[in-house]
What we know:
There is one protein chain. By secondary structure, this protein is an alpha/beta fold. The protein has two domains: 24-268, P-loop containing nucleotide triphosphate hydrolases (Rossmann fold), CATH 3.40.50.300; 271-323, 2-Layer Sandwich (Rec A Protein, domain 2), CATH 3.30.250. Helix content is 32%, strand content 24%. Strands 3, 4, 5, 6, 7, 8, 9, 10, 11, 12 and 13 form an eleven-stranded mixed β-sheet that branches. A two-stranded antiparallel ribbon has the order 1-2. The longest helix has 16 residues, at 159-174. The protein is globular.
Amino acid sequence: MSFDDFIANLTPGVRKNIQTVSNVNRTVYKTPLVGLNWALDGGFLAGGFVTVYGGSGSSKSTLMLQCVALWQTQGYTCGIIDAEGTVTKQHAESLGVDVSRLIYSGDKGIRQAADTAVAWLEAGIDVVIVDTISDLIPAPFIDKDGTVKEFDGNQQIGASAKSIAAMTRMIHYTCKKNQLVIYVSQTTTEINTTYTRQIPSGGKKVEFDSSQMLQLTASRATTQQLKSKEDGSAIGREVTAVVMKNKGGPEYRTAKYNLYYGDGLRGIDKAYELVEVGCQQNVIQGTTWLSWNDIKVQGKENFARQIRDNPALMDALYADVEMALDGVVVDGITEDA
């Protein structure tokens, strides 16, 4: 049967409600990091939910807040369900967030978080971040009036996974193709008879239904911290991001960036990451002395400092590096099998 014959055989009511994939356009939310966007094949894919997971100190919350800062400048409305209770006005502002426009909820129960997320999505919010699902209390542990049940009543196997699964179904039903929900999760270990692997908490439903899964890893060992050149104190750490699942593009791509918490720097260093990728792509020429357009400085740190102080230069370099990355795989930004 031809396509036109099939359409003609449909009843008017059914025909009115169908469309072809040519009309399905999903929003892609870019991150502030050019290498991470390449790894994700553009950015975070809207229309469902994404899971970002990792161990302690792997920049999960910081990455989310810096993404929010970028998305706000693009006109998107963002909300965060702060189950950890760690979001502060001062920290968010230091990362560039317009705190007067970031919607906030401190829900700590899965039922309450689900109701909040659904209400926000129905009202038309663009991005909802749940940070973290690992800290949300399962529905059976809380009475309908919001009080926590006594400890003896909290011994239910699989209660967290079942509640997270219910929340996920509600979000999937409510989420429109231009909306994005991000689950932030702590890493847990899955132990099998022949191997172990690091997975997000929350049960299998989180893995199965995520459009994308991004794993962040960073060492907290003192010897592996980034050190100040002045006094040798620890000021940051290197983070590795691996795309463990991607329904919108290739999987197992890797990106790296630096997370700082001292020496005058705060959060993820977008400028240095851009310089690193620019050098890998030969957009920035040289080894010791680096040059691009009219800029010629010694060393990556000095180059990063110069563009960090000039947003117009950073935007121009970002555009050049992004063009170079289109369809290119290079050392340092790998596509591991």
